[in-house]
Each structure stands twice: as structure tokens, then as C-alpha cells.
Amino acid sequence: MFSLKRRGLFAGAAVGALTAxxxxxxxxxxxxxxxxxxxxxxPPQIHGFKFGSFQVVVIQDGIGVSDNPSQTFGTNQKPEDxxxxxxxxxxxxxxxxxxxxxxxxxxxxxxVIFDTGFGEQGRAKGSGKLLAGLKLAGYxxxxxxxxxxxxxxxxxxxxxxxxxxxxxxxxxxxxxxxxYAFWTDAKRMGTPAENGHxxxxxxxxxxxxxxxxxxDEGGAVxxxxxxxxxxxHTPGHMIFRVESDSKAMILTADTSNHYVLSLQRPxxxxxxxxxxxxxxxxxKKVFDMIAAEKLPFIGYHMPFPSVGYVEKLDEGYRFxxxxxxxxx
Length: 328
What we know:
Layout (H helix, E strand, L loop, with lengths): L5 H4 L4 H19 L13 E6 L2 E6 L2 E6 L11 H10 L6 E6 L2 E4 L4 E4 L15 H7 L9 E3 L5 H4 L3 E2 L2 E2 L5 E5 H8 L9 H10 L7 E4 L4 E4 L2 E5 L8 E7 L2 E7 L22 H18 L3 E3 L7 E7 L2 E6 L7
Parallel strand pairs: 6-7, 7-10, 10-11, 15-16
Antiparallel strand pairs: 1-2, 2-5, 3-4, 5-6, 8-9, 12-13, 13-14, 14-15, 16-17, 17-18
């Protein structure tokens, strides 16, 4: 199996030797994604590219399909207005698909995983593919030196543990202090956050002694990566700025959860945003910055491979997927 590690993919003449197999594999994965999904037949989709001196790999942990988009996005709008915007953008009006996309960044100093997907709990439904995707990219769980959690919702923390043990046995961990304090607080019992609280106790709390906590103002994660507060989706939700060789990119996590309904209409409320007014303000602030600086970004729930740009459009933003910007 080909390797996406820098020493395999970007070392001298190996670039030419591996480019064709890599894109052939990508095509095969895209074709596989059109087949009806079963528990075992879908290979993990991965997308790797070089960013400055860093190697980036986006891994699709899974895809979920849900009914009634207006019950999740634009909950403060008329359902017919949500349907009209979907139809205008060539999307179904009765269902929507949501992808889950952890990111690996190999800086040369650290191999960093941002979020961990659903883990073993999601495999019966076709998710939990992070570890398989890492293997396909040429990485073992033991290679991961740092796991960063943008926030502590279940689709971001489920892959921390594997068969009762840490999935990344040599890693250290980081997340926001405010985020961790909120979800581990016993006051969550008896509230809508109870299930999230229990998931954090099962998956995150056992690793507490390996965590470094990011303060509210953000700060350095490792060389070339820093945390930026982006509260609203959850109390301590963080985004991350990645810089290498004078290039910059933003990992926006769940700042926007749909490339049309949350970007073209950033004021439309999202069911899973815990503080909806703060989440709206954060969405505008973050994507105003991304648009103004013309930065690429990776969004956890953007269409695979989740990498693109935004430009200002009417009252919101238009998502522009990346093509060959980092390949030449």
C-alpha cells in the first residue's frame, strides 16, 4: 500500500512514482462511495496534500443521512425557505448527508490528529473509519504524538478509546479548559447535555492526566499551529490556525456545519449550536476573516475532502472547494 507520509510521497523522485497510484486510488474510493453503503464494503476515503512543509491528510470517518433538513438547519426559519435554498443549490429538500472528517497534520515534529470521529461505537452504522484511514495513509496509531479535540461532542471524541484502551497509546492530548470543565461537570446530569456528559466521562476523562488544557484566549498547540476561541457551538469550541512556509490555513471544526445552509445563511440557527446567538456571531467573524484573507479552510462537516475557500455572497458566503491549489 502506498504511503502518504512525507518521506514516502514527497521525497525526491518518489513524487512522480507515487502520484499516479495515489490519484488512481482516489478515483476508486470515489466510485466506491456511490455504491449502497453496507457495514463492511466501504473503504475509508482519504485525501492528502502538502501544505508548506506539512503533510495534511483528511480522513472520512463516516457519513450520516438524516431526514428533514429544516429540523437541524434554519430552525428559526420557515421549512419552505430552507427547502427553497436547498433546491436553488441542486440539493435534495427532504434529506441531507453529513460527513465527519478528522484531520491529520504531520509537521515533522509532531503527528497531530484533530478530532477522532465515532470510533468503535459507530462501526455498526458504517462510521468509525479513522484508524483504517490512518493505515491507508501509512500511519499507525503509535505514530500519533498529539490528539487535539476542537470540542467534545460525540462525533469528535468517540475514537479516543479502542477496546477499553487509548486508541493512540503514545499521544498527549489537548482541548479547551472551558470545554472540558463544562462536559465533566456533574451538573450536566438531568439536562439535555447528560448523554454528552456520559460520553466524555467514558472517552475523555480516562485520559485526563495526559491532557494539556487550552485557556479561553487560545494559544500555541505545537510549532506552526495555534488555537483560537470560537465559542457558541459549544461553550469552549476552538478553531486552529495552521502556518507553514508563509502559508496559512484554518481548521474551522463545527463553526459551520453545512456548506450551504450555514454558510450562505450564517444567521440561520442550527439545532446543535448550544448558544445560538454566539454561534452566529462566531460564524460571521470566522468566515469574514477567512474570506478577507483568502485563506483555505478545512471544515469537519464540509463535503469531502472538506477543503475549500469562501467568498462573500449576498448575506453570507459561497463555498469554493479546492482543486489543484496545493498539487502544483
